[in-house]
Amino acid sequence: MSELEETKGSQNGDQIVMPHKGGRTWIVVAALVIAVGVILAAVLSGGLLSSGHRKDSVALTGAGATFPMPLILKWADEYYNKTDNTVKINYGGGGSGAGITQIKDKHVDFAGSDAPLSATDSSTYGLVHIPETLGAVVVAYNEPGLQTLRLDGPTLAGIFMRNITTWNDPAIAGLNPSITLPSDQITTIVRSDSSGTTFVFSGYLTVVSNEFATLYGQGKSVSWHDAIGANGNPGVTQTIKTTQHSIGYIELAYAIANNVPFAQLKNHDGNFVNASLETTSAAASSATLPAGDGDWSHVNILNAPGASAYPIASFTYVLIYKELYNDQSKMNKTAAKALVDFLWWVVHQEGQSYAPDLYYAQLPSSVTAINEATLNSITYNGQTLR
Amino acid sequence: MEAHRHIPPIEKYGKNLGGTGRFGKAAIMASSKGSRLRGKPLRFGGDRIFEYTVMGVATLTLALVWLLVVRMVFDAQLSIERFGFGFLIGGDWDPNRDVYGALPFIFGTLMTTGIAVLIGVPLSIGIATYLSELAPPWLKGPLSFVVELLAAVPSVIYGLWAMYALRPVMVDTVEPFFQSVLGWTPLFQGDPVGLDKFTAGIILAIMIIPTIASVSKEAMMAVPDSQREAALSIGATRYETTRIAVLTYARSGIFGACILGLGRAVGETMAVTMTIGNANRVSWSLLDPGQTMASLIANNWGEAQGLQLSALIEIGLVLFVIALLVNAFARIMVGRFMSRVPATGGGL
Question: How confident is residue B339, by pLDDT bands cut at 50, 70 and 90?
Fold first, then answer.
């Protein structure tokens, strides 16, 4: 080992000059500095240039629920054309929870949410609810040879609580007397991610089954017993389509678009109703709703009365501030006026006419009337905008 | 064995100084520490700038890990205070009642990773052995390229493939077969649905194979030909040469490759979410759906608030700790293994 020490010692001697081409380093550093400078300059000038847009144009930003996102984007597009390219609306999605957080922090001008705010939240923050469209959740299934299926609330709850585990269970057979049901095991398919769809579906089961209400309860995610979870509406739809003897819940739009059969449900009036845009709208027409700035936390149109009302329907809301003037968002009066005008357009015939093409149900006139009152009460620095 | 490869100069240096492999290795290490090219006093400003720059980059990774842990502990505080150690053994995950426990997900992660490693490691080492020792040159290039290409396929693609192509095979053939042979064990109870821990484990195995195989292959190719020549010269067969000279010599590289693969399996999210069935419960049967920690976080992140969010972050923390433990455990195992087998020098 002493050999090594010696070698080391001699290497550390001063006479050895490290071969380097140091001069180049400065060139590299200088090049880097210049490159960074150029990029910064580009970014800054880009920012300055892009801010030089037309004086009268307005950009509004929203975020939140993904369920109404396709419709909101369609509205934004049409409204941009309609206003001669002056009102630009961006909607970022991200989920109801994220939307509510962002509007509370005043990072967005409006939020989308599938669930209403709690009473304390809407009064503390001064937010109003504007239901802009309706959705329905259907019970889709995959059982070869089964063309139609009729279910009622308690039976559906029994299936998802795994009290009913075979297709020819007496409870199902009793509702479908004309059909010979197979004896296969039922596989239940649920959402693995937390979602408004689960919130609405578990809400319905909570309304129709006391056992479900005590054991599981309503929520964006539910600890289902013995079910297969799949991610998102597309995931559940796909899993149902590829899993024999399965049953699950998805948004109406996905069932129609993917041609998945879904069950007729027994509604509040005792009729078996097929989910459609009309029966979904019918569920909302009998609802008694509070004023826009009131407490919406108990509003639901689940198992709503009405001969043709589909029982698993739900509003989805736009949330905005009742007083649009505030220090943080720096929204000017033009923008505030544009936001109210846009929402006015959305909840009326012209905006609503875009809904059916995208499988969203239109608002009944009773709901539009409430939205009109809400929008008329929106103020900017104390002044009404309409 | 193909023609003589060029013996790297450092090997020559080691041999001149040493003699036996063990001493030679020590010499190489000592000499490389005292090398004239490393750690010299810096005389030129540019070198200093360069040194501080790379030092900054290197320490940043350390700072990043540290910040990650601090931030996670901070954000998980709510859940840590509420559940304490009970979080680790709690079997419920119920956002409606604000009760959270990590056990089903720890269990699911370990089980799928176990399947992946059990299937993936032997196959990968086989692939690496063929590519490095046996494959003819015209096949070696394309094959290596394809294996490395597979490592770059995004996990969502593997997930989609698993859902559409692998799952039907699992449901119709693989799972019924295992059920008929091993149906008496608790591991294969229940109906084959194809969205379960078994399918997830297999897709994970497929995903870690390219990583382990390509890194192991590099480690085996780095074994000097002198090792192979020595084994051949004492009359070893091709198999024995590979086992004694190549695999033993390259074992630390191969082990490193396995750790890389293990890391990918523990943390894999997308492909697992798509195939595991996402059921929050503990079940020994591979044919039952389950859930892993990474997949749970991905599933619930978007809408989680308050205590649930905190519990999800604690799951992240647990995942981090488990990854550390698995790594440490593997290192200890290999340490034992290495002290049993006489060192042949180099490669470590």
Answer: low
- Best probe of the B interface among A221, A225, A236, by most B CBs < 10 A, is A221
Strands (E) across chain B are located at 93-94, 99-100
Phi, psi of A130 (to 5 degrees): -125, 95
CA pair distance B250, B347, nearest whole angstrom:
6
Which comes out higher in pLDDT, residue B1 or B299?
B299
Among the partner-chain residues A7, A8, A216, the one whose CB lies closest to the CB of B96 is A216
Neighbours of A86 (CB within 10 A): 17
| Cα–Cα distance, B168 to B164 (Å, whole number) | 7
Give the angle subtended at the CA of A136 by the CAs of A135 and A141, to the nearest 5°.
145
pLDDT in tens, B120-168: 999 999 999 999 999 999 999 999 999 999 988 999 999 999 999 999 9
Question: 10 Å Cβ neighbour count for B16?
Answer: 10
Q: Checking DSSP bridges between strand A246-251 and strand A264-266, what pairing results, if any?
A: unpaired
Q: Is A295 helix (H, G, I), strand (E, B) or coil?
A: coil
Which residues on chain B are in Cβ contact (under 8 Å) with A26? Answer: 46
Residue type, B159: G
Q: Within 10 A of A90 (CB to CB), how many other CB atoms are there?
A: 14
Q: Is the predicted pLDDT of residue B70 greater than 50, yes or no?
A: yes
* Chain B interface, Cβ < 8 Å to A: 17, 27, 30-31, 34-36, 40, 43-47, 49-50, 92-97, 163, 167-168, 191, 193-195, 273-274, 277-281, 289, 291, 295, 298-300, 302-305
Distances (CA, A) of A356 to A133, A352, A363, B73: 10, 8, 11, 48
Proportion of chain A above pLDDT 70, given as a percent? 88
Give pLDDT tens digits for B247-267.
988 888 888 889 889 888 998
For residue B59, report the phi and psi dihedrals to the nearest 5 degrees: -70, -25
Alpha helices in chain B (DSSP H): 9-17, 21-33, 45-75, 77-83, 86-89, 103-129, 137-151, 155-161, 167-169, 175-182, 197-221, 225-233, 238-241, 248-249, 251-267, 270-275, 293-300, 306-340
User: To which H or E segment does residue B124 belong?
Assistant: helix B103-129
B162: nearest Cα among B271, B298, B273:
B271
- The Cα angle at residue A169 between residues A167 and A170, in degrees rounded to 5: 140
Cα distances from B24 to residues B18, B19, B28, B105, B233, in angstroms, run: 4, 6, 6, 48, 21
Q: Is pLDDT of A198 > 80?
A: yes
Instruction: Look up residue B244 and give its DSSP letter.
Output: I
Note the pLDDT of residue B13: 42
Residue of B nearest to A96 (CA): B303
Q: Does residue B37 sit in helix, strand or coil?
A: coil
Pairing between strand A379-380 and A272-273?
A: unpaired
Contacts of B34 in chain A (CB under 8 A): 4, 7-8, 11-12
Distance CA B278, CA A227 (A): 8
pLDDT band of residue A3 (cuts 50, 70, 90) is very low
